[in-house]
Protein 1
Amino acid sequence: MAVNLSFNEDLLPIAGVRLATLNAGIRYKGRDDLLVMELAEGSSCAAVFTRNAFCAAPVTVARAHLASASPRYLLVNAGNANAGTGELGLAAAKACCNALAEVGQCKPEQILPFSTGVIGQQLPVDKVVAALPAAMANLKEDNWLAAAKAIMTTDTIGKAMSKQIELGGKSVTITGIAKGAGMIHPNMATMLSYVATDAQVEPSLLQAILSEVVEETYNCITIDGDTSTNDSLVLAATGKSGSVVDASNRASFQQAVQDVCMYLAQAIVRDGEGATKFISVVVEGANDRAEARVIGNTVALSPLVKTAMFASDPNWGRILAAVGRSPIDKLDVNAVTIWLGDTLLIEKGQPAPSYREELGQVEMKRDEINVRIQMGRGAASATTWTCDFSYDYVKINAEYRS
């Protein structure tokens, strides 16, 4: 079960966005595994993609299409990643785009394809194509809940969020969905996430906003240190509210987008495969933000730290060791102070005289754990969100293809 996370059903439709889901039989039985998202003519679209060199075929195609045309449709399938599939995989992604373009009466370059699931298996194009007419006939503005469920793989719960703000006296709505529970260590965005707004935002500004938001949200989470071949995040703006985002109100709009993306990013961690604990690693007093993130990631990615968290074992030496092996220059251990929740573990490099095992035990038994590390090197800080490693993480991944 996800850690303190429930399915958010209070979602708001976005004028200019329609969605449809259905079961195409790609891999799963008894649940939808295909999503079609329609964007109104004239919508702006921004995206970020995985930096994994073995990126999936749909990532390659989506990048090329986004650079050449204004998207009208997003096509997402679950159960098959169409990654590691070579030229046949590229042809499959393009064939799906061609089929949807024909049904949707637009250019193939106006389709952005996305896939998630098992790597190394060819996409069953015939099943996707056969399902498209029915999907197009069922496009609705209020289908966000179904969309969040249709893109799931090992997720135990759909991840979705809406937010409304006032810009220039007009109401602006932002709604987003995401999927992801394993193979999570983003180096651009998240596994799959789609966020839309009815604000009017010029494409280059929308891309700048998305790139900054990603650095504060999706790029601050990790579950297992594996960057997916399929990571993709799209932000679409239909302009239907009549509210224009510009330099005067960018900060307010960007914060609202960040709030939605922060919820989705943390929801992914809370639903990490087999997770029982939600962990925040806060690094303070670093020379710069990049250094703070390196230290935070080293702690958050440590299997020994993560398994101790699962066991509720206050073996704080594992945290200390992870900080000490962080790849940073000239670490002065006598400047480092570490807390576990409100309990002081290390003070200026020395064991805290106030520490007692029972205090650490209380902190470790919580389902939300905060590790705070003061480096004493500068003024920069960063937070990484992660989860523990349980027996179920191994079980889920050992049985993933069965």
Protein 2
Amino acid sequence: MNRLTTSQGAFQLTRFPEHPRDPFRAWDAADEYLLRRLTDPEAGPVDLSGAVAVVGDRWGALTTALAAHRPVQISDSYLARRATQANLERNGADPAAARLLTSRETPPDRVDVLLIRVPKSLAYLEDQLHRIAPAVHAGTVVVAAGMVKEIHTSTLKLFERIIGPTRTSLAVRKARLIFCTPDPALPRTPSPWPHRYALPADVGPVSGRTVVNHAGIFCAERLDIGTRFFLGHLPARTGADRVVDLGCGNGVLGLAAALGNPQAHLTFTDESYAAVASAEETFRASAPDGARADFLVGDGIADLAPGSADLVLNNPPFHSHQATTDATARTMFLGARAALRQGGELWVVGNRHLAHHTRLRRIFGNCTTVAGDPKFVVLRAVKR
């Protein structure tokens, strides 16, 4: 746990789930820069008495610091929402101090102050700006924040095209602010997302199937090469298996499992609301008749009953925003072991250099290599 001290107060903040040895804080210099700007006497404090919306707050630092102004938070991350709830409670805020909306819910009708944490995904920023633009008026104060490496010319062009004229601040501690003046004359057009594409003709049972991709999910424009490799080495199974697509993204792996074994019952789970929506739409568009599936937004596989799964398929991420970390993969592997029945299997694809086999042997006591090439490896671990 770390202490963030700002002009709004001092706050004890942590990420979710909490890891005692997690080296990363629940905020960064961009969050601090934005909070300072809101009370800057030289530039003029921002009037927060109206409707305040916070988009993309990564771990609830902005929402917690501004709880007295009862902001609306809009987030695509289940973990960010849980972190926000925990941080609000930890700092003595009223549980109803902030209204927490997902990226798939309808934004507020009116926003007087719009605060945005620039996301890693330009597509997600585009989608969220389109969705909230109708709530912005000529007097709305729009301030976005990000680290310098996150803000590009393309980022500024999005603000210019969807909201209005845009300028940036000087960089402070490698963070920068974006100031945007709403232009009511700009047309308020719908978001172009989701996107759809047909899978290639050489990827087994899912060849040619339609994939639906909401903004911000991994490889929303094309099939990523790791998943392509995995599709060529999935286990051939029959019968009423309970199969989990863990960290499902757009659901291609789970769809392949359903097409390969129509008797299976699939569970698609991800911490991204957009990912689970994508997986559900992909499944509905391309699954065989009578195929069964559940769709869960949550912390990995934690919501599944222990010993309830026969097979877990996983292509774990190795980034948390801009940070490189194996903490997410470790959490996924531990959760998979708990959810699997005795004899159940976890199949994982990953970059060879990540050495997932070492972690899997520690957790499962075994790990075999199913397939590999110079870049990727498919691993199998069995719950004994």
